[in-house]
Amino acid sequence: MSQDDLKKTPLHAAHLRAGARMVPFGGWDMPVQYSGVMTEHGSVREHAAVFDVSHMGEFRVTGPQALDFLQYATTNDVSKVRVGRAQYNLLPNERGGLVDDIYVYRLGETEYLVVVNASNIDKDLAHLRALAANFDVTITDESAGWALIAAQGPRTAELLAPHVGTDLAEKKKNSVFTTTLFGFDVMLARTGYTGEDGFEIFTKADEAEVVWDKLLAVGFAPAGLGARDTLRLEAGFPLYGHEFGDDINPLSSHYTWVVKDTKDFHGKGALLGTAPGVRLVGLKLDKVIAREGYPVLSGGEVIGRVTSGSMSPTLKEPIAMALIDAARVEDGDINVEIRGKAHPARVVPLPFHSR
Questions:
Q1: Between 147 and which of 10, 209, 223, 284 could a Cys-Cys bridge form, CB atoms 3.0 to 4.6 Å apart?
Q2: How distant, in Å, are the alpha carbons of 136, 261, 268, 310 from that of 65?
Q3: Per-residue pLDDT for 1 more than 70?
Q4: What is the chain's Cα-based Rg?
Q5: What confidence tens digit (pLDDT) does each residue in 334-354 have?
Q6: Domain positions in the chain
Q7: DSSP character for 228?
């Protein structure tokens, strides 16, 4: 795909003005870094930064059977989500894997907003509409009308508070609410993908650039996809296409809590019918960085593969997640093959870092 064919978020011009390094990501031209991954990562862990995540998709689900539909389409218990609250969830397919991992925001008694991964927008929409055939529900793709800015870090609420028309201290994790920010009508959700406190800001696409500039003016640092990836890796958050996928059973991960076997859902038999043969584990290495796809070895035998890996800016050591043979997790000699050489690795609990 050529540069001209890449989609652009409403903040694209702002990224270019700031001198961001742009890269293709899921069909979009996105900023990977501004001042550098290490600096931007540190800003989120110690202060506050903003990410452009406007490439994510937003579907509005409405109708008298909206809850029944989402209960069937997802693995988590949507009936537990009160109005003004959000929930992490999974879209199962019919063969024991996932169509996507998503966030569900309950905006009204029969109204929800579903946020999906950027590269899966078309696939997810087709999947949900096919499942909706037997429900009195309407699914509207609103992705083009929204911009989404993730403000993350321990000082996020402090920096936002003077400019928001709502008392943020009253809003707990996973709250979602409409308010004003710098005089613009927005929706805020106390959610994020970094392992830090923060708010995701839903704003109109044509107002996003002004909101972004004002966020930078009050003290937020701009951050790109590079820091977003190292932050979520430290927090042990799975990424679709890496730790989750069409043929990866989510029960192989530490996210089994998102799958509720007490309710009926699409693909339940396939997902719960067989214990996964692999398990997602955390790995720590000495000095060398394990990247996606590198083989994991035990006794010289390949027992799995690395799904994500990087140097941890917080821990100052290489970390990785890997899917390995579930029967070999306790093996004493785990190695990662890097450029033809086996390097020792230690299996460690996830997450690597938590606030």
A1: 10
A2: 5, 21, 20, 44
A3: no
A4: 20
A5: 999 999 999 999 999 999 999
A6: 1-274, 277-355
A7: H
- Cβ neighbors of 301 (< 8 A, separation 6 or more) are none
**d(Cα 78, Cα 119) in Å, to the nearest integer?**
24
Same fold, 1-274 and 277-355: no
| Contact predicate 28/8, CB 8 Å | yes
State whether CATH 2.40.30.110 applies to domain 277-355: yes
Cis bond before residue 238 (omega within 30° of 0): no
Q: Alpha-carbon distance 74 to 58, whole Å?
A: 16
Structure tokens at 348: 């460690």
CATH architecture label of 1-274: 2-Layer Sandwich (3.30)
φ, ψ at 148 (rounded to 5°) = -135, 120
Strand, helix or coil for residue 330: coil
Q: Which of 90, 113, 191, 88 is nearest to 149 (CA)?
A: 191
Tally the residues of the chain: 355
Question: Tokens in use for 244?
Answer: 């989750």
